[in-house]
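Lab notebook, design round three. We kept the backbone fixed and only want residue identities now. Task for the bench partner: fill in a sequence for the structure below.
Input structure tokens:
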């Protein structure tokens, strides 16, 4: 079924020209006729389209988990509680930010250890509550779509309801999970990487049809264990569907993003050091966008800088050095994939410092230097920044008051 540029591309299992039959104990089900699914970017008056009128998307990555994003014990206000994070969202909205994200994690008692002790809100539930406490900002909840609680019918109904409540300001960061411990908590063995994206594609295909279908919808997937039989969802999303996002750097993940997502959350292929990241990002962002273009779609890239900003460069460096000096050696030792030496050779010490600071990349300096780094990220093909801070409340205030006006002067924000 050919679908135009402004429409979501469906997975090959759903886009087959003939129905896919399956049998159950008492009935034969078939895939219902498919309908196109429109992206919120196809509606000029949608909150997503309005946000994309900005030259640079501006977002905040909320610290709904203990420790925020920094493995450091330096004293700070950052807190995972709902009230703290709601205040951050409302302040970001007042500053004119376009969107906020929050992570989702499933960890055993004690979390990763140290400051990352596992205390955390649920992303979906906490941001859902914020839909009624905000007016303009887009709320993007991270959801592990393959884990136990979700059936496509639940997911389609709940997200359409939140889209309705928020008047089109609801988004989903679709993740498939990667740590063995997460899968095991739900009684599974870890699913192979590329297969996770195949399963997620079937899930999203069904969800999008439920959002779009004017009639009852039946679907029997090829790979997944769930089925739909004469399913229907109301209310329908206000602007086709909610904003879709995923975070990836792999071939399978980029292809998934190219077919489904409006925004892809990228990382720096060269690590957290800003100059190395700026050198590597143009080719990486070009690759992501070219993959989407092959599917007849346009996608935006978003990256997560940790912002360490003070009035002078010297003060900002001193702040960073203090964060690193208080690096929490008890964090990130629980799982093999995160194990690293806090004391070792130069490369290992740099990795430890990056963990202490946090963020996929870190930008350190005066307000003008921070603005200049963000301009350079945009020139490298990055369409938006999803900011993190060490001490969120005062650091967000400082950014809004001292850096944001410089971004306006640079033509990146209206």
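Proposed sequence:
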């Amino acid at each position: 079924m050919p679908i135009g540029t402004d429409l979501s591309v469906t997975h090959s299992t759903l886009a087959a020209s003939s129905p896919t039959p399956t049998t159950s104990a008492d009935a034969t089900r078939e895939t219902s006729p498919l309908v196109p699914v429109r992206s919120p970017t196809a509606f000029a008056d949608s909150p997503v389209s309005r946000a994309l009128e900005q030259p640079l998307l501006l977002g905040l990555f909320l610290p709904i988990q203990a420790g925020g994003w920094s493995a450091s014990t330096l004293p700070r206000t950052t807190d995972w509680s709902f009230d703290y994070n709601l205040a951050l969202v409302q302040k970001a909205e007042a500053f004119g930010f376009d969107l906020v994200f929050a992570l989702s994690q499933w960890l055993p008692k004690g979390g990763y250890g140290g400051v990352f002790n596992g205390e955390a809100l649920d992303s979906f539930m906490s941001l859902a509550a914020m839909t009624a406490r905000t007016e303009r900002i887009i709320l993007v909840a991270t959801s592990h779509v393959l884990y136990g609680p979700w059936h496509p019918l639940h997911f389609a109904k709940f997200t359409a309801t939140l889209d309705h409540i928020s008047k089109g300001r609801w988004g989903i960061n679709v993740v498939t999970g990667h740590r063995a411990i997460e899968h095991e908590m739900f009684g599974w063995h870890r699913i192979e990487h590329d297969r996770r994206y195949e399963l997620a594609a079937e899930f999203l295909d069904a969800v999008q049809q439920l959002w779009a279908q004017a009639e009852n919808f039946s679907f029997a997937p090829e790979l997944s264990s769930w089925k739909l039989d004469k399913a229907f969802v109301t209310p329908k999303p206000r602007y086709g569907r909610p904003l879709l996002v995923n975070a990836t750097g792999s071939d399978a993940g980029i292809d998934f993003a190219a077919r489904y997502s409006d925004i892809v959350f990228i990382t720096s292929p060269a690590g957290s050091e800003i100059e190395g990241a700026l050198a590597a990002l143009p080719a990486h962002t070009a690759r992501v966008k070219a993959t989407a273009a092959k599917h007849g779609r346009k996608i935006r890239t978003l990256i997560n800088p940790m912002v360490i900003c003070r009035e002078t460069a010297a003060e900002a460096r001193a702040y960073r050095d203090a964060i690193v000096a208080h690096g929490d050696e008890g964090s990130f030792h629980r799982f093999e994939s995160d194990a690293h030496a806090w004391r070792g050779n130069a490369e290992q010490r740099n990795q430890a410092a990056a963990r202490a600071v946090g963020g996929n990349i870190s930008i350190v300096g005066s307000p003008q230097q921070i603005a200049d780094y963000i301009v350079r990220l945009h020139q490298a093909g990055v369409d938006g920044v999803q900011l993190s801070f060490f001490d969120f409340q005062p650091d967000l205030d400082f950014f809004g008051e001292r850096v944001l006006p410089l971004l306006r002067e640079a033509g990146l924000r209206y």
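Keep this in mind before ordering anything: The first helix runs from residue 47 to 51.
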